[in-house]
Amino acid sequence: MDRTQLLLTLSIALFCLGLVGVMIRRNALVMLMCMELMLNGVVLSLVTFAAHSGTLSGAVLVFLVFVVAAAEIGIAIPIVLLLARQRHTLDVGAYSGLKG
Amino acid sequence: MSVETLLLYFFAATSLAGGVLMLVARHPMRVALALISSMLSLGAIYAILGVHVIAVFQVLIYVGAVMVFMVYVIMLLDVRDASFLDRYGRAIVPSVAAAALLAMALGVAVSRGRIITAAELSGLHPGRSPAEFGVQPFSVEFLEGYWLHFELTSVLLLAAVVAAIAVIKAGRRHDG
User: Fold this and answer.
1) B28 interfaces chain A, CB cutoff of 8 Å
2) What is the pLDDT of residue A1?
3) Residue B35 CB neighbour total at 10 angstroms
4) What phi and psi values does residue B27 have, to the nearest 5 degrees?
5) Which residue out of A48, A49, A56 would a mutagenesis test of the B interface target, given it has the greatest number of B Cβ atoms within 10 Å?
6) Fold category of B1-86 in CATH
7) What's domain A3-94's architecture?
8) pLDDT in tens, A31-71
């Protein structure tokens, strides 16, 4: 198998594993980590294409994606902390009142 | 088969194994450790691809900052609730089926599609040589071509810090 094709397949597999995790796990923190896995899979495909085409702009874009991911996790974790403090649980079933 | 290809297969396998372990592990700390091993394998893959700057950032930002934060929160919130005793929600069969369908569709697209070769790509943009991904070319390209985006990331991080503080303050007001 071609190297690019192998890495794209790995990226698809990681994305889908993360997607399964977000959908089936009940723990809010675990769901957050599965989202990180999905993001990592997508970033892998971005890096693969950047290395394949030999463009530095791709690497710059990956760096910017990393910064956005750090900001995202910096907001998501306080929200999960707040939810856990109010309901005393991390089970997403207990947050069903948020459906509105 | 060269050593690089073997290493590529090895790290691809370990990152996949980390992803599978994340689905079956019970304690959030084990999930976090599986995710860290998966991310480290991805960093190794980036290093094999020659994109050393991104490999370093993967280890520094993801494993160093994001996952340490995550592990810290897991230690802070050691709650043994219903989600600890019963790992999976109700919609496990349709979720797995949907994700498998998506994986199959994307996999067929990747295996059937033809990936444009580097030679064809340089034909599209004549006069451009493939870049090297060292620290120096990366920094020059970054700070000459994308300095505005670099400055904008600092604004984004500042906004994230303010938002995090606001969220914590809002929670305190609600409790008090």
Assistant:
1) yes
2) 65
3) 29
4) -80, 135
5) A56
6) Four Helix Bundle (Hemerythrin (Met), subunit A) (1.20.120)
7) Orthogonal Bundle (1.10)
8) 999 999 999 999 999 999 988 888 888 889 999 999 999 99
Domain residue extents for chain B: 1-86, 135-176
Minimum CA–CA partner of B14 in chain A:
A10
Q: Is B141 close to A4, i.e. CB distance below 8 A?
A: no
Contact A5, B12 (CB under 8 A): no
Could you state, in order of their start, the residue ranges of all structural domains in chain A? 3-94
Q: Whole-prediction pTM value?
A: 0.90
Query: A76 vs chain B: nearest CA distance in angstroms?
Result: 8
What residues 34-53 of chain B have any CB closer than 8 A to a CB of chain A? Answer: 35, 38-39, 42, 45-46, 49-51, 53
Average pLDDT of adjacent 10-residue blocks, chain B of 176 residues:
90 96 91 95 94 91 90 84 76 91 92 76 66 81 89 93 89 68
For residue B167, the 8-state DSSP code is: H
Amino acid sitting at position B91: A
- Cα three-residue angle B58-A5-B135, rounded to 5 degrees: 35
